[in-house]
Structure to design on (164 residues):
């Protein structure tokens, strides 16, 4: 298996314009090179000035929602192990931070100086059943198209384990 990871940087200007054509182009390129499943990390560029999580940024939430409606096959490619798939789902569906206290920028900076990393904020993502089934079926169908039902099955099984 090829262990190549493709990092797709999405500029803020495309997010704000709700332009998913770059991702559509990337999906087409991944098909041409016969890239394996779970090989993509998505990075949103231009949001370094905020301490908000990506799933808290409305423009990103709207962009990802559109992406998953028009090109749900991206979930075949996004990395489960790096959390890319979960981040996209958190952006598109109901998410609740399950934490006693949210740190502000100053508190986060102090915590980082002491511990060398930031604490993980546990989140609860709720995906309606009809949407889960739509996404699972899209991933399976794409796996069939790619002649990789096993790879698609691994992704769907992992998502079902988390989301039902």
């Amino acid at each position: 298996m090829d262990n190549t990871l493709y990092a797709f940087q999405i500029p803020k200007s495309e997010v704000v314009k709700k332009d998913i054509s770059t991702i559509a182009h990337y999906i087409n390129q991944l098909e041409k090179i016969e890239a394996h499943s779970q090989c993509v990390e998505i990075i949103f560029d231009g949001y370094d000035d905020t301490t908000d999580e990506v799933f808290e940024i409305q423009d990103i939430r709207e962009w990802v929602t559109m992406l998953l409606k028009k090109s749900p096959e991206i979930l075949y490619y996004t990395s489960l192990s790096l959390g890319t798939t979960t981040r996209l789902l958190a952006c598109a569906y109901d998410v609740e931070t399950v934490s006693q206290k949210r740190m502000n920028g100053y508190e986060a900076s102090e915590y980082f100086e002491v511990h060398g990393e930031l604490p993980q904020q546990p989140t609860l993502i709720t995906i309606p059943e009809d949407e889960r089934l739509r996404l699972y079926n899209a991933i399976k169908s794409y796996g069939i198209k790619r002649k990789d039902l096993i790879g698609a099955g691994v992704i769907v099984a992992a998502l079902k384990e988390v989301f039902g």
